[in-house]
Specification:
By secondary structure, the chain is of the alpha/beta class. It has two domains: 143 residues, Alpha-Beta Complex (Quinone Oxidoreductase, Chain A, domain 1); 140 residues, Rossmann fold (3-Layer(aba) Sandwich). The strands form three sheets. Strands 3, 5, 6, 7, 8, 15 and 16 form a seven-stranded mixed beta sheet that branches. A six-stranded parallel beta sheet has the order 11-10-9-12-13-14, with helices on both faces. Helix 1 crosses helix 10 and helix 2 packs across helix 3.
């Protein structure tokens, strides 16, 4: 059996390349479940992997794609049987284990989550790792005790995958959302998703003061660097910040002042190795709390062959919302 896939490799001279190839099923890695992949997506990390702009991929050759949805074809795992609908995010897939930008995937059954009732395989990848991460951020704020009556929630990187889903989730849950973006021309789009206010990312992206005016009861940050530092500096007393990304940078040029003078909490949100119970809770919440009509409105479908250009586009800030890859469409 052969299948199409986006493969990342290095040649004999160490030159990095990503290309579409036809593979035999013997090329699949070890695992106890084989999945017929229906959809994948393009996340920021996929863009880094496809372009080679960061050392995301740690094994060569490797099928790209950090997540996928599909149907189990073969299984020796006790929980899964042929025909089961499943979704996968993280666990090193697309980094050290061949991933979802291919028509077949073989993985450990322990990595899979059942696709919740009410979600299609396409919708699951419109959510993807970005949306699943957004849900983890929202859950962290909720468990901290942040409630809609407490005040504004800041969402940075608002036009990205995490940002758009976070805005939609928070808006539906009754929070007043302030969206920070570098694309103010998209302000109306963000308000349609659920943002009450849109601000220029320039208000947060430059070096700032150790403490600023208290503005946010909570923050979902996908940007890092000065933006995260300024978000912390302007979070209200005993508020919370959920940090999950590094689009501006992985540095954190901040002060301890917001933490010891205002008692704020910074939550690091890891979607890659999150335990199964948390994953399943997040996916059930997404099926229940996400406005699927709004999800469809921010989703664009591409073919497997178009994934290579999409990887560059997401790094260049040219992608709004979510892109799903129909892997059956080579």
């Amino acid at each position: 059996m052969t299948f199409q896939a986006i493969v990342i490799d290095k040649d004999a001279n160490g030159r990095y390349r990503a290309e579409q190839r036809v593979l035999a099923d013997e090329a699949l890695p070890e695992g106890d479940v084989t999945v017929g992949v229906q959809y994948s997506t393009i996340n920021y990390k996929d863009g880094l992997a496809i372009t080679g702009k960061a050392p995301v991929v740690r094994k060569f050759p490797l099928v790209a794609g950090i997540d996928f949805s599909g149907v189990v074809e073969q299984s020796t795992h006790p929980e899964w049987k042929p025909g089961d609908r499943v979704v996968l995010n993280g666990w090193g897939v697309g980094e050290s284990h061949s991933g979802g930008l291919g028509q077949l995937a073989r993985v450990k059954g322990d990595w899979l989550v059942p696709l919740p009732d009410g979600l299609s395989a396409r919708q699951a990848m419109a959510i993807g790792t970005a949306g699943y991460t957004a849900m983890l951020c929202v859950m962290a704020l909720e468990k901290h005790g942040v409630r809609p009556a407490d005040g504004d929630i800041l969402v940075t990187g608002a036009n990205g995958g995490v940002g758009t889903v976070a805005i939609s989730l928070l808006g539906k849950l009754g929070y007043r959302v302030v969206a920070s973006t570098g694309r103010l021309g998209e302000a109306e789009f963000l308000k349609q998703l659920g943002a009450a206010e849109v601000i220029d990312r320039g208000e947060l992206s430059a070096p700032g003061k150790p403490l600023g005016k208290e503005r946010w009861a909570g923050v979902v940050d996908a940007v890092g660097s000065h933006t995260l530092a300024n978000a912390c500096a302007t979070t209200r007393y005993r508020g919370a910040v959920a940090a999950c990304g590094l689009a501006q940078g992985m540095d954190f040029p901040a002060s301890v002042a917001p933490f010891i003078l205002r008692g704020i909490t910074l939550y690091g949100i890891d979607s890659v190795m999150a335990p199964q119970a948390l994953r399943r809770e997040a996916w059930q919440r997404l099926a229940r709390d996400l406005d699927l009509a709004k999800l469809d409105a921010i989703t664009r479908e591409i073919s497997l062959g178009e994934a290579l250009q999409a990887g560059q586009d997401i790094l260049d800030g040219k992608i709004r919302g979510r892109v799903v890859v129909n892997v059956s469409n080579g």
